[in-house]
Amino acid sequence: MSTLEAPSVAVREQSPVDGEPCALLKLGEVVLKGKNRELFEKRLADNVRAAVRPIAKVDVIRRHGVFIVRTKDAHVELVDRLVQRISDVMGIVWVHRAWRVGKDVESVERAALELMAGREGSFAVRSKRRDKRFPLTSTELDRQVGGRINDVYGNPVKLKNPDITVSIEIDRDEAFVFSGGVPGAGGLPVGMSGRGLVLMSGGIDSPVAAYRMMRRGLRVDYLHFSGMPFTGPESIYKAYALVRELDKYQGGSRLFVVPFGKAQQQIKSSGADRLAVIAQRRLMLRTGELLAHRMRGAALITGDALGQVSSQTLANITALDDAVEMPILRPLVGMDKTEIMDQARSIRTLSISELPDEDCCTMLAPRRAETRAKIDDLRQIEKRLDVNELAEQLVESIQEHRPVYGDS
Ligand code: ATP
Ligand code: MG
């Protein structure tokens, strides 16, 4: 939540701020240089505009290391909604609701006073000049504005660990004054690293895997295998709800659903036995690879974590990699279950993942699953099954959904 508080009406009447509220964004990955930086900023500006489109039409103004997001008829509540929404856009480390005011000491003071109105505790003013032609140095400006706040409200100045920090940034055409802010999602703007396909089970891990790859700039689509027609549609509802929640990080998400029950039955009757689970995962990957090619995706993403369950041993992971040529990204491979659950909680997918459903995989699970799958044995089974043909058929049976964040 924003720590910004709306200034009290009484003070606003006494000292109207001659500026407008706007959102000030601090960009991440500042080490990026040259062409990459340009790409980063262009993509990010597009992503910000798209994310807030249901709320307001905005201008995104690019300055050195920061973005300014302005909208017509801006008011504090509207900008707070923008700030909240923008905090989910990948590539931003801080989002502030700031007063955008004239580039003179008096305007800056008025905005600072408004931000401090009715607030108790010690404070410090911290100024930064992106335009060095400003007549006061940062320290002089800190002192001047701090002195004024202290005169008017009596809050004590405390430079180390103050309760409240009032930040001032002097820019090319204007000044920004703000206090507090919302941490951004960090990472790289979605779309900067290409496109991938997430194998989305409805469990806890795959949504977290999707989040982590989006955070590294990958635009993702989702592929879910349901046990239909032998199970109910519950797992599809779950996958849908998960993708809708994750859509807040990129927008325009697609969920592809494959009715997988019959294929599973075929695997079962092929005598795969202890290898059934791995054989089925290989079939999922093959189907995923075919689909990814069609949509120009360049990677598959799964929620595998080394050793988490018996199917996720190093030998089994090797057997899975063998099924496809496309790289399989496993962003959770080195994470503990508790770490994954913490992350799932913070991205709000955990409670959805924990809803009951009939996972398609349970249908196949033999009493003892193979932990050291032999690739030759798997190839034998797949030959009997004619997996390439089977994967083609599965892709043809796909249904596409478009879960949109904020829809219910
Ligand atoms: P998750 O919590 O993501 O379900 P898990 O710990 O249950 O993971 P497995 O069931 O072995 O692990 O699945 C490992 C990975 O395989 C999943 O993270 C997911 O990427 C993929 N996967 C498993 N089942 C499905 C499915 N029904 N549809 C799509 N992908 C799946
Ligand atoms: Mg699972």
From TrEMBL:
Q: Which GO terms describe its cellular component?
A: cytosol
By sequence similarity, the record places it as follows: Belongs to the ThiI family.
Keywords on record: ATP-binding, Cytoplasm, Nucleotide-binding, RNA-binding, Thiamine biosynthesis, Transferase, tRNA-binding
- Enzyme nomenclature, EC number: 2.8.1.4
**Keyword check for Chloroplast:** no
In terms of PROSITE patterns, this protein maps to: THUMP
Name the Pfam families for this protein. Answer: ThiI, ThiI_fer, THUMP
Summarizing the function annotation, the protein's role is: Catalyzes the ATP-dependent transfer of a sulfur to tRNA to produce 4-thiouridine in position 8 of tRNAs, which functions as a near-UV photosensor. Also catalyzes the transfer of sulfur to the sulfur carrier protein ThiS, forming ThiS-thiocarboxylate. This is a step in the synthesis of thiazole, in the thiamine biosynthesis pathway. The sulfur is donated as persulfide by IscS.
Query: Lineage of this protein's species?
Result: Bacteria, Bacillati, Actinomycetota, Actinomycetes, Streptosporangiales
The entry's ATP-binding residues are L199, M200, H224, F225, R281, G303, Q312
Q: Which GO terms describe its molecular function?
A: ATP binding; CCA tRNA nucleotidyltransferase activity; tRNA binding; tRNA-uracil-4 sulfurtransferase activity
| GO BP field | thiamine biosynthetic process; thiamine diphosphate biosynthetic process; thiazole biosynthetic process; tRNA 4-thiouridine biosynthesis
Please give the pathway this protein is involved in. Answer: Cofactor biosynthesis; thiamine diphosphate biosynthesis
| Recorded catalytic activity of this chain's protein | [ThiS sulfur-carrier protein]-C-terminal Gly-Gly-AMP + S-sulfanyl-L-cysteinyl-[cysteine desulfurase] + AH2 = [ThiS sulfur-carrier protein]-C-terminal-Gly-aminoethanethioate + L-cysteinyl-[cysteine desulfurase] + A + AMP + 2 H(+); [ThiI sulfur-carrier protein]-S-sulfanyl-L-cysteine + a uridine in tRNA + 2 reduced [2Fe-2S]-[ferredoxin] + ATP + H(+) = [ThiI sulfur-carrier protein]-L-cysteine + a 4-thiouridine in tRNA + 2 oxidized [2Fe-2S]-[ferredoxin] + AMP + diphosphate
Cell compartment(s), UniProt: Cytoplasm
Kindly give the PANTHER family that the UniProt entry links to this protein. Answer: TRNA SULFURTRANSFERASE
Q: Would you say which domain of life the source belongs to?
A: Bacteria
Q: Where is the THUMP domain?
A: 80-181
Record's protein name:
Probable tRNA sulfurtransferase
